[in-house]
Amino acid sequence: MTTPPLAPFSGQQAQAARDVNTASLCRIGQETVQDIVLRTMEIFQLLRNMQLPNGVTYHPNTHQDRLGKLQEHLRTLSVLFRKLRLVYDKCNENCAGLDPIPPEFIPYVEDDSSKLDDRVANQMCAASEERREVLEINKKLKQKNQQLKMIMDQLRNLIWEINSMLSVRS
């Protein structure tokens, strides 16, 4: 018993099947890139576990198994790169008629976050001013400490001279 052939697509369905959304193509491309990275990591893991090519293999079956896995991963990687190239070409084809919009010409729509930004900016300004005041006070404090140190040194020298004079006198 044979099955009847499937009815051909209508014109609109065939067109829809050929015209895939560019965003979904980008998603497919992203997944393909993730698969490529995963396969590449697996290839490096296999290479790290393989023995050096010095002619000595301890387990020939294991070596052949790993070599087979490596070749399979390389074939899969080749297929994934071809798939990525097809997705890339299709995205470029879909976007060929679009005029690129420079980012400076994209209109900015103001929303409620701008009010929040103003409050944050005011708080930042106040914090900046407070920090400047603290730095200024620290600078004055260092100057006062230098002056006190000089006074203490002068007093120490004065006491030293007085003690020296008293010792000479006696």
Structure in a nutshell:
This protein is mainly α.
The computed structural class is mainly alpha
Which shape, going by the Cα principal axes? elongated
Number of beta strands? 0
Mean pLDDT: 79
Summarize the amount of helix as a percent range. over 70%
- Radius of gyration, CA atoms, in whole angstroms: 39 Å
- The percentage of residues in β strands lies in under 5%
Q: How far is the N terminus from the C terminus? A: 137 Å
Order of helices and strands: HHHH
How many separate helices? 4
- Uncertain spans, ≥5 residues at pLDDT below 50? 1-9
Query: Largest sheet, described in full?
Result: none
Descriptive tags:
mainly alpha, 170 residues, disordered N terminus
Describe the protein's topology.
Layout: H1 11-18, H2 22-49, H3 60-95, H4 113-169
Helix pairs in contact: 2-3
Walk me through this protein's architecture:
The structure is a single chain. The protein is 76% helix and 0% strand. The chain has 170 residues and is mainly α. The chain is elongated, with a radius of gyration of 39 Å.
